[in-house]
Amino acid sequence: MKILVTGATGFLGKYVIKELLDHDYSIVAFGRNEKVGKALESERVQFVKGDLSSIDELRQAFQDIDAVVHAGALSTAWGPWKAFYQANVIGTQNVLDLSREYAVKRLVYVSSPSIYAAGKDQLDIKESDAPKENHLNNYIRSKLASEKLFSDYPDVPSIILRPRGLFGVGDTSILPRVLRLSRKIGIPLIRGGEQLMDMTCVENVALAIRLALEAKVAHGQVYNITNGEPKTFKYLIETTLKGLGEPIRYRKIPAGLVAGVAYSLEGVYRLFHLKAEPPLTRYTYYLLRYSQTLAIQKAQTELGYYPKITIEEGIDKYVQHDRAH
Ligand SMILES: NC(=O)c1ccc[n+]([C@@H]2O[C@H](COP(=O)([O-])OP(=O)(O)OC[C@H]3O[C@@H](n4cnc5c(N)ncnc54)[C@H](OP(=O)(O)O)[C@@H]3O)[C@@H](O)[C@H]2O)c1
Predict the structure, then answer these.
(1) CA of 199 to the centre of ligand 1 (A)
(2) Angle at which helices 11-22 and 202-214 pack, to 10 degrees?
């Protein structure tokens, strides 16, 4: 079977390709970064360069494929709505239109549980708990809007996954940010670091994607994906920093102050149309302050998803890789 993987040149995409190659699939890898894309090419991987917002460029990748993993997205916490709309909403609509036109056997869409983000503790969130709207940032808004498109395509056999907090070797987002912060000013500690975080090893997300491609479940289903082992913020920070041999320096900060700074920074950046991401956003503040865990029973029973790597093993892999490079 030949699978089109959008976002193939990104962090998750490379793990998806590995997981699929290990299970005898062939791949059409789609992305804009030609250098990274060409490096992916092999006997069973063909690279097609293009932008998701151009249906003509995307069409080139739909030739002779059986199924699609749509993991490409503008995936940052800050930026203008137009950019997110083009990449994530129009991009997903193009994927849906072509999936219909080429009658693909399955479309697995990688969405995001960031759509659940709210200023409160939320434990055991179920797929059906998704809000109708969430304008916390343009990324979240675009992911929610892209999910809504699927109801207009009941004839496209699709499954939506919402994997939370991906980490692993090659991560350019979560762990590197934490390390930068730790080295520069220390780790901001709110509520004593006892809030729960529900992370996912990137290898497990790739596994969930393959299972979603193969599962005999009804189409139109949505699944939360995590490691199923929520850990406290403090545990995650200390295990990682100790492993890396880095000092653990906390900065105890009152939650109200962090909130105030995040709101003010966003206001200033918006007022002056600053392109860079503010050093602290309301989304990061929510992540640092509130517990959020997801129910993954639906993925377990319907997809047969059981993580193959534990959080501890995932951190250890990251640490070993970092130490060796
Ligand atoms: N990382 C997380 O914690 C997390 C959590 C939940 C959900 N997700 C979702 O998982 C997916 C993969 O995320 P990631 O962490 O792997 O992000 P990433 O490393 O930033 O990769 C994003 C990928 O999307 C491609 N892309 C972006 N805009 C594009 C466009 N206009 N046209 C074509 N390709 C475009 C990029 O291609 P080029 O670089 O070649 O342009 C890249 O391959 C995304 O859908 C994201 O929303 C991620």
Answers:
(1) 17
(2) 50
